[in-house]
Design brief:
By secondary structure, the protein is α/β, with parallel strands linked by helices. The chain has two domains: about 25-110 and about 185-260, 3-Layer(aba) Sandwich (Rossmann fold); about 115-185, Alpha-Beta Plaits (2-Layer Sandwich), CATH 3.30.70.1020. About 30% of the residues lie in helices and about 20% in strands. The chain is built from eight helices and twelve strands. Strands 5-4-3-2-1-10-11-12 form an eight-stranded mixed sheet, sandwiched between helices. The protein has a four-stranded antiparallel sheet with strand order 6-7-9-8, with helices on one face. β3 (about 90-95) and β4 (about 100) form a beta hairpin. It is an enzyme of class 3 (hydrolase). It catalyses: alpha,alpha-trehalose 6-phosphate + H2O = alpha,alpha-trehalose + phosphate. Its cofactor is Mg(2+). This is Trehalose 6-phosphate phosphatase. Removes the phosphate from trehalose 6-phosphate to produce free trehalose.
């Protein structure tokens, strides 16, 4: 199932999604949350994000009220997502959907390949020589952030694109906000949300997805097709299929803190 445009999606979704983009009553909903730029403000490096003290507990309370139908859908590795919200653990789709931990605890993990090692080592050397570059090793994939060194952006995109093209379809390039990465091909946030919706406690619920970046568009398409609601955080810098929007991550945090109280 697909929805081609945001206008089509709005026609199929609830009518007040623009006046009240984030619903106050989540009865019957399943919640899919991106992390960076959505729950948390973006930082120069993934390790520098700030998690409000109240947030892990709020997510846990909300997950219980939804009978566990709350999932983090992120580009981060699963273990890194867990670290952010310790001691609580939620269903998680990591590496943009390549790895999934279902609510039951069942795991689907992308294969780890030594094919990445030369690129990983090259990027590590490059980051060591240029402090503005930040390497994020995700084991099954590798990302490099250039927010503090934007002059490297075009070259890094070209380098990782060439690497992915030489992988015979095993890897693909993923662009984000001042970050480029190589990740396992064939999975995305949309395929992850589809997989989660096929199993309890998400099955049969109306999906609500909140995200801020290009990678979130894939889950927006799926959520729209299921008659749910796709909420974009921030003004998009490219076409989006989101059916509603909020201005910034702070709006999401304020909503989360309020409904989880």
């Amino acid at each position: 199932m697909t929805i081609d445009t945001a206008e089509d999606a709005v026609a199929k979704s609830d009518p007040d999604c623009h006046s009240r983009p984030l619903p106050e009553d989540l009865t019957g909903w399943a919640l899919f949350l991106d992390i960076d730029g959505t729950l948390l403000d973006l930082a120069a490096a993934p390790t520098e994000v700030v998690v409000p003290e109240w947030m892990p507990g709020a997510l846990e309370r909300l997950s219980r009220r939804l009978d566990g139908a709350l999932a983090l859908v992120t580009g981060r590795a699963l273990e890194n997502a867990d670290e952010l919200f310790t001691p609580h653990r939620f269903a998680v789709a990591g590496l943009h959907g390549a790895d999934i931990r279902f609510a039951s605890g069942q795991m689907h993990m992308a294969p780890r390949s030594s094919f990445l090692d030369p690129l990983r080592n090259e990027l590590a050397s490059l980051a060591a020589l240029n402090p503005g570059l930040v390497l994020e090793d995700k084991q099954a994939g590798v990302a490099i952030h250039y927010r503090l060194a934007p002059k490297f952006g075009d070259g890094l995109i070209a380098k990782l694109t060439n690497f992915a093209e030489a992988s015979a379809g095993a890897f693909e390039v993923q662009l984000g906000k001042m970050v480029v990465e190589v990740r396992p091909a064939g999975a995305n946030k949309g395929t992850a949300v589809t997989a989660l919706l096929s199993q309890p406690p998400f099955q049969g619920r109306k999906p609500l997805a909140i995200g801020d970046d290009l990678t979130d568009e894939a889950m927006f398409v799926v959520v729209n097709a299921y008659g749910g609601r796709a909420v974009r955080v921030g003004r998009p810098d490219r076409p989006t299929v989101a059916t509603a929007e909020v201005d910034q991550a702070e709006d999401v945090r304020n909503w989360l803190e309020r409904i989880a109280a």
